[in-house]
Design goal:
Elements: E1 3-9, H1 10-18, H2 22-28, E2 35-39, H3 42-50, H4 62-65, E3 68-70, E4 79-82, H5 84-95, H6 108-113, H7 128-149, E5 153-156
Helix pairs in contact: 3-7, 5-7
């Protein structure tokens, strides 16, 4: 399972949603600007942001699991669309996190018990602690720039 986020305007989102395979085609395309690709680190990043393997009501949970479902099931559920206001809220919450210490408080056994994907949770040894830091910084930057730079746009993940 991978996680890829895209920033698209309202017209593009409508077009993607109306075309039966629109979101699947986007994921399979070479179109990657502007986007962020968390690959398999998505669940570990969610765990590090929220302390939960499942979606929560916290704004940081919306960075991975938030938004309205649109389109067809892509194998692990349909694409999700966040409003521009929610993207701004997620960006503000993520801006308060220090990337240099993100993942330092990882409890590997708790993450393993919660079945956090991928199942290799060792701090700073190639598990979600390391992957979380490597993937968090571009995700934070992308989310922040998308929220600040673009008006009347929504992000699809």
């Amino acid at each position: 399972m991978i996680w890829v986020g895209y920033c698209r305007d309202e017209a593009e989102l409508r077009q993607l949603a109306e075309y039966p395979d629109g979101f699947a085609a986007l994921l399979e395309s070479d179109d990657d600007a502007p986007s962020v690709d968390l690959d398999k680190a998505w669940h570990g990043i969610h765990w590090l942001l929220t302390g939960s393997a499942e979606p929560t009501g916290d704004v940081l949970s919306d960075a991975i699991f938030g938004g309205r479902q649109v389109g067809d099931d892509l194998g692990y559920g349909p694409a999700r669309v966040l409003t521009v206001d929610r993207v701004a809220a997620v960006a503000a919450a993520m801006a308060r996190i220090d990337p240099a210490t993100f993942g330092d408080d990882l409890d590997p056994s708790a993450a393993e018990d919660a079945e956090v994907y991928p199942r290799r949770c060792r701090p700073r040894s190639g598990g979600i602690g390391t992957a979380g830091q490597e993937e968090f910084t571009p995700a934070r930057r992308s989310c922040g720039s998308s929220a600040c730079r673009v008006s009347r746009r929504r992000c699809a993940a």
